[in-house]
Design a protein that fits this description.
Layout: E1 3-14, E2 21-32, E3 36-40, H1 47-54, E4 64-67, E5 70-71, H2 77-86, E6 88-91, H3 102-111, H4 118-131, H5 147-159, E7 165-169, H6 177-194, E8 197-201, E9 213-218, E10 221-227
Parallel strand pairs: 3-8, 3-9, 6-7, 7-8
Antiparallel strand pairs: 1-2, 1-4, 4-5, 9-10
The structure holds adenosine-5'-triphosphate.
Domain ABC transporter: 7-230
GO molecular function, one term: ATP binding
Protein name: DevA family ABC transporter ATP-binding protein
Length: 231
């Protein structure tokens, strides 16, 4: 099966000289198309660093990190930007633009894709906002939406370009348990419909069941990679 993510012997360091500190140690991980993988572990264990490397938000320093067939180790800044644009991102703090409506925030997710016609952009944005249950909130600004609704806009924005890979960092952290559950159910449903792969960092034990596989990190190392059903 096609490997969407393939990481071999990956180390990562922050800082220089005497401040240089290793935060990832010999990471090996493969994720197949359509898998939902949760990355969990204690604070400071390196989860966000790994997610950011996979997303091209940081440059990998050594060994091999292939995402959607492209090697990111040694890639130019321009190649990393291109790699970033192919993925969908969902963050804890949703990162919506406060001065744009729900609809405008979602269309922005498509405007980076110059080959998609304006009319198609509008159609897809309306359709996905309907799918996330916000068809009646299209012209609301983030301030006028609840935490869960904002996060649903963020999901719509991440998925509207139908990316093959979605990276999510603590997408439920700011939500109450019901909203958190709704948000991950929605991610799971849309990902299955679109056939996309999800790599999600979370501390939230209430949502581990949506994963096909749970990967545990500790002190910069992967300590297991169990099927979700066993955990
Ligand atoms: N920009 C940076 N510069 C220097 N050190 C960093 C930087 N970002 C992270 N670190 C260090 O790297 C280690 C891993 O951090 P990371 O944020 O990846 O952990 P995490 O598992 O995602 O933690 P949390 O669950 O608290 O978000 C920590 O020791 C952290 O202090």
């Amino acid at each position: 099966m096609l490997k969407v993510i393939s990481i071999r012997n990956l180390d990562h360091y922050f800082g220089n000289g005497s401040l240089r500190k290793q935060v990832l140690f010999n990471i090996n991980l493969e994720i197949s198309a359509g898998e939902i993988v949760i990355l969990t572990g204690p604070s400071g264990s390196g989860k966000t660093t790994l997610l950011n490397l996979v997303g091209g938000l940081r440059a990998p320093q050594s060994s091999s990190l292939r995402v959607l067939g492209q090697e990111l180790c040694g890639a130019s800044a321009e190649r990393l930007v291109q790699a970033r644009r192919r993925n969908g991102y969902i963050f804890q703090a949703h990162n919506l633009h406060g001065s744009l409506t729900a609809l405008q925030n979602v269309t922005m997710g498509l405007e980076l894709h110059p080959y998609i016609e304006l009319e198609e952009i509008q159609t897809r944005a309306l359709q996905i906002l309907e799918q996330v249950g916000l068809g009646n909130r299209l012209h609301y600004y983030p301030d006028q939406l609840s935490g869960g609704q904002k996060q649903r806009v963020a999901i719509a924005r991440a998925l509207v370009s139908r990316p093959q890979l979605v990276l999510a960092d603590e997408p439920t952290a700011s939500l109450d348990s019901q909203s958190g559950r709704d948000v991950v159910n929605l991610m799971q449903k849309l990902a299955h419909e679109q056939g996309c792969t999800i790599l999600m960092v979370t501390h939230d034990h209430r949502i581990l069941d949506i994963a096909d596989r749970i990967v545990q990190m500790e002190d910069g190392k992967l300590i297991n990679a169990t099927p979700a059903t066993i955990s």
